Amino acid sequence: MDRKAAVAAYRQRKPERGIYAVRCEAAALVWVGRAPDLATIGNRIFFSLRHGGSPHPGLQAAWDEHGAESLAFEVLEVLDSEEIGLGWQRELKRRHADWIVRLGAAAI
User: Fold this and answer.
1) 3-class DSSP state for residue 103?
2) Which of 47, 89, 91, 101 has its CA 20 to 30 A from that of 65?
3) How far apart (Å, rounded) are the C-alpha atoms in residues 92 and 87?
């Protein structure tokens, strides 16, 4: 696939909105976040952690202490945007809060 076709395919894809978790097995900690595009959020989080620039100090501390091997990215829930419609941001926020309580996690 050439570059133009790859760019066109990327633009035409529908983003998967949803809830994700980052787990630190060594410290038994969990962080839960929400994203308008689950396909890109994992790379964004781990890039900022590798460069020491994460806006989440607890997550950065776990990365610094235990390393990349102890952290795992996990998709918890994918929202069906067509089913939810225009209120997807409100629904994403509500489900984010629900997962934080359910897992006893920190919000990111």
Assistant:
1) helix
2) 101
3) 9
3-state helix, strand, coil in the chain (%, to 5): 55, 25, 20
Tokens of 17: 């909105």
Spatial separation of the C-alpha atoms in residues 82 and 86, rounded to whole Å: 9
The pLDDT tens digits of the residues spanning 2-38 come to: 888 888 887 887 889 999 999 999 999 999 999 999 9
Annotated domain spans of the chain: 15-107
- The residues, any chain, with a CB within 8 Å of residue 1's CB and separated by 6 or more, are 9
Pairing of strands 29-35, 17-24: antiparallel
| Best CATH choice for the domain 15-107 from the list 3.40.1440.10, 3.10.310.30, 3.20.20.370, 1.10.1040.10 | 3.40.1440.10
Residues contacting 15, CB < 8 A, separation 6+: 36, 37, 38, 39
